[in-house]
Amino acid sequence: xxxxxxxxxxxxxxxxxxxxxxxxxxxxxxxxxxxxxxxxxxxxxxxxxxxxxxxxxxxxxxxxxxxxxxxxxxxxxxxxxxxxxxxxxxxxxxxxxxxxxxxxxxxxxxxxxxxxxxxxxxxxxxxxxxxxxxxxxxxxxxxxxxxxxxxxxxxxxxxxxxxxxxxxxxxxxxxxxxxxxxxxxxxxxxxxxxxxxxxxxxxxxxxxxxxxxxxxxxxxxxxxxxxxxxxxxxxxxxxxxxxxxxxxxxxxxxxxxxxxxxxxxxxxxxxxxxxxxxxxxxxxxxxxxxxxxxxxxxxxxxxxxxxxxxxxxxxxxxxxxxxxxxxxxxxxxxxxxxxxxxxxxxxxxxxxxxxxxxxxxxxxxxxxxxxxxxxxxxxxxxxxxxxxxxxxxxxxxxxxxxxxxxxxxxxxxxxxxxxxxxxxxxxxxxxxxxxxxxxxxxxxxxxxxxxxxxxxxxxxxxxxxxxxxxxxxxxxxxxxxxxxxxxxxxxxxxxxxxxxxxxxxxxxxxxxxxxxxxxxxxxxxxxxxxxxxxxxxxxxxxxxxxxxxxxxxxxxxxxxxxxxxxxxxxxxxxxxxxxxxxxxxxxxxxxxxxxxxxxxxxxxxxxxxxxxxxxxxxxxxxxxxxxxxxxxxxxxxxxxxxxxxxxxxxxxxxxxxxxxxxxxxxxxxxxxxxxxxxxxxxxxxxxxxxxxxxxxxxxxxxxxx
Length: 705
Hints:
single chain; alpha+beta; 5-stranded antiparallel β-sheet; 40% helix; 12% strand; elongated
């Protein structure tokens, strides 16, 4: 008679324990054991956080232990049980770890592989091959694609959070009840008395301070004090909530007929607007052509002067908002959107400042170009309109589409195509934690028809859907690769654009993440042929392209992966998008958007179509009323909070990997991230406005809020 010692660990979540019957079957390469009862009900086993051990007697030689089957059967009342892991000590003294980290619901069972990750081509035993295939068949029936809205990335086929598989639900649904959280936020912020005061305008800009009785920080107070300044307006394009739109401008678009005469008073390098725009290429070529290629010392200095002095014009174009329907869910309040174009300039103090704003995509007499030299309220109102438009793009495209929906798409494909034993599944699982759940709750309560989004946002009532549909037509895989996204906008030169902390910190986190992914993947993929021969990883990539992105021709998502380097980049995109990119555009919302005039969620008067009409009264009538301001404030506060027991980048408490080489790679990753965090802390000590959104110790592993 052979004796196996079986150790079973129960989860620490609330209600993780069970009083049900738990059975185990050990499966070896030669034989399998009889089903053995591990616990008798009400004997205090399998309680929350418990680690229980049992002896399992087996009459025959099982051979090499390859599978463990756990079954749960109802005793009195049906409950769920969360199993963390099972460890088996064999008669020879070998300890075999079987990671689980899953819920057993109702009278269900789970079959576990040992913790060593394996590619499909490495499985030789027929039993494990069959189990691998069976697991995927069950997963594909459980995790089904569904089109929530036409033109969106595909999402999970579940209408409510409680309809999701238990393994991907929040531990407690109360944790992510948007209505409850927003109400709690409004109470915490002491703005209860305003939340139903729709159609009631504020009297003065200073009145917005009345909803800031509590919860201020350094950044918020600085924004409140300096939001009207052109330098603060420009700084937000680099390091605010939406630092992904600004791009270098080499040629003015025809739809923005700005002349040198209009902006000359804003340029401080004694160059014309045309020289600032074209010198990087055209003027340098002409200079060399005129002087020949035998340059004197003086000519070289002059050439370098033009090369480095010019190229200081940047642009932000909100053309995606053109034609998008404004919120009309409240018949008592007309709401408006605009699709502005903002021209920016880097002055000799290396500050980004606006030099021209057109509030329409169509030039003409009804679309004046507003300038810093205009009347104070004309210029202020134009900037407010740009900030409102930026808020719409940020919330719907930068945040919702490019982090939430894209991460969910990757997560669904992962569950459908990669078994738990696959190294890529083990790598990605912490980075999709609660992502499908948060998005399902958002579709259930936040962005649905009549949801919270409709209460305060100018694109509510369907405009946000149109905006995502338009943005999907230009979304590409390369635009999700952080270095490529920066280069595409010609914002990669640190000397030309200093103090772009989103870029600088993002590069460091991207490289650290890519190095970690590479360290892990190189353990399992020794060459490109190993990637090409992995049918599961190829199916995963194909599922993302063909179903998640609905086989879009323009998207550039790969249909297959042909090299190890392609695989590493692909997985880095997934991890970075879910962690760093989401953190960069989510957790600063309260800092930058809580001061309502700096980020109006809606506008109640149309954009001005001529100069000289703006007054303080018009601005107050345009900005959100008291009720919408309160809902907006509650929203950005709630969305900026971390989850309870948040897991930050590099934290992997669930040991899906058991191999020492992977654990060493994780430790190396954590040390590198800690170094980045420390250097950012030191830098921020000297700053009036610290930039900490990409500090690794503030980056959650996944999109979960």
